[in-house]
């Protein structure tokens, strides 16, 4: 009896460590692509975008409770960043943080893509089941691509701060009202707006091209990060007009969702997340 009492915990620990090791190995192995063949890309248009949005709304209506639980943290983080910028005397970073936070938005849709995939197949669509699928092969490339988007977001914040420094800076402003007054009533302020919006557009376009279908594809197929990103770029090349229209729709909906203290994102994010999955299904054979 004593040997079993001692042996079982030891055996269990060894098995758990072995399982963790296998999972880590699968995650690392999944980052690369053993099969570098890109899938066939379809031509999509306005009708496909409308259909994807309609199906996204249908998914949100059917999975409302689980979806809200999965995405509620995103607007909370956005609001917290805005409060930090105001309280830390970094009002010049308020707009870059709010405008740039959607750069990492595709990461927030991971669970939503899996829910839509499961609903298509008639499987369990709870958020716990969706998150449980993010293991082994899927986890490695998803985390890698998420880290890439985080780096792009950090570069945007650094660039926006540099633009402010050479226009309205480098002395910080005591209040948001003073900063807005200087921004809207001086030539330096308008220069900051024009240059900042132009550079911000380039960052947004980069993220759109890289992540348009990358995350849904990583959820759906046993491919690595390089193939997923290459497929996303191929979709953009095949459908430049549809991609631009989709980007404008996403930007407009995110702005509307942010206006009421980020609360609207609780609805906007799930709809866009589910719609992204259906857009992927229409664009990639």
From TrEMBL:
Q: Where are the transmembrane segments?
A: 67-87, 93-113, 142-164, 245-272
Q: Which InterPro entries match?
A: DUF2189
Going by the UniProt record, its keywords in alphabetical order are: Membrane, Transmembrane, Transmembrane helix
* Coiled-coil intervals: none
UniProt protein name: DUF2189 domain-containing protein
Q: Which organism is it from?
A: Paracoccus broussonetiae
């Amino acid at each position: 009896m004593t040997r079993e009492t001692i042996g079982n915990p030891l055996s269990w620990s060894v098995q758990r460590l072995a399982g963790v090791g296998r999972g880590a190995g699968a995650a690392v192995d999944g980052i690369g692509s053993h099969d570098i063949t890109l899938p066939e890309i379809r031509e999509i248009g306005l009708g496909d975008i409308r259909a994807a949005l309609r199906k996204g709304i249908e998914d949100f209506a059917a999975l409302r409770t689980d979806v809200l639980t999965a995405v509620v943290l995103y607007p909370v983080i956005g609001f917290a960043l805005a409060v930090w910028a105001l309280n830390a005397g970094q009002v010049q970073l308020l707009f870059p943080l709010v405008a740039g936070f959607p750069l990492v938005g595709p990461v927030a849709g991971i669970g939503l893509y899996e829910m839509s995939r499961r609903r298509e197949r008639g499987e369990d669509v709870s958020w716990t089941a969706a998150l449980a699928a993010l293991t082994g092969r899927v986890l490695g490339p998803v985390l890698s691509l998420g880290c890439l988007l985080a780096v792009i977001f950090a570069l945007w914040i650094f660039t926006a701060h540099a633009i402010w420094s050479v226009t309205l800076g480098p002395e910080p402003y005591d209040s948001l009202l003073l900063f807005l007054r200087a921004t809207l009533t001086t030539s330096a302020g308008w220069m900051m707006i024009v240059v900042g919006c132009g550079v911000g557009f380039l960052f947004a376009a980069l993220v759109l091209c890289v992540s348009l279908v990358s995350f849904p594809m990583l959820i759906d197929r046993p491919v690595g990060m390089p193939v997923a990103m290459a497929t996303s770029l191929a979709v953009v090349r095949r459908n430049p007009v549809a991609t631009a229209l989709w980007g404008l729709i996403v930007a407009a909906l995110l702005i509307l969702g942010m206006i009421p203290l980020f609360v609207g994102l609780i609805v906007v994010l799930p709809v866009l997340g589910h719609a992204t999955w259906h857009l992927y299904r229409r664009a990639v054979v």
